[in-house]
């Protein structure tokens, strides 16, 4: 094990990645773990609190998306530990290090929740794509993990944005939280 406490620990490994690369990937993945945990809880917040005439459909959709994101929490944490790192996965750690803004507690109607989740999925997708670039050729397996997550997040964002077409919450060009300029 290398020197360091808690999150700085890096256990010895037979992986053919240098300690430097493993350390960089662990740091990157822990940032993603925080945001993924936070995203999951925010989706569940919407799932639990949505109201209105489309309640049941939104309730099921949000639960489906939350279930998919929940799987990524474990995948990211296990990649961290496979690299010899320590996964920082408590709720407090996630809240402190998430790239996402806090979910509004006053939302009620389905489209309000859909718009709030679309904003968060767009930002999270941007974060994940940055992870693909940062992992790059230094760690193809971590880059591949991010690519897998990105595909699903983009598809779910598409679903949510499709619901919002024609509403006051519809995305406008240049205003997307996850735009790639």
Query: What's the CATH topology label?
Result: Ferritin
> Mean pLDDT score, rounded?
92
Instruction: Say which CATH homologous superfamily is assigned.
Output: Ferritin, core subunit, four-helix bundle
Helix and strand run? HHHHH
The CATH class turns out to be Mainly Alpha
Number of DSSP helical runs: 5
The strand count comes to 0
The CA-CA distance between the termini, in Å, is 40 Å
Gyration radius (Cα, Å) is 17 Å
The name of the CATH architecture is Up-down Bundle
Query: Which runs of at least 5 residues are low in confidence (pLDDT < 50)?
Result: 1-5
**How many structural domains does the protein architecture include?**
1
Helix content: 55-70%
Q: Please state the overall shape, judged from the principal axes of the Cα atoms.
A: elongated
Q: What is the percentage of strand-forming residues?
A: under 5%
Question: What structural class is derived from the secondary structure elements?
Answer: mainly alpha
Query: Major sheet, described briefly?
Result: none
Key structural traits:
5 helices; mainly alpha; disordered N terminus; Ferritin
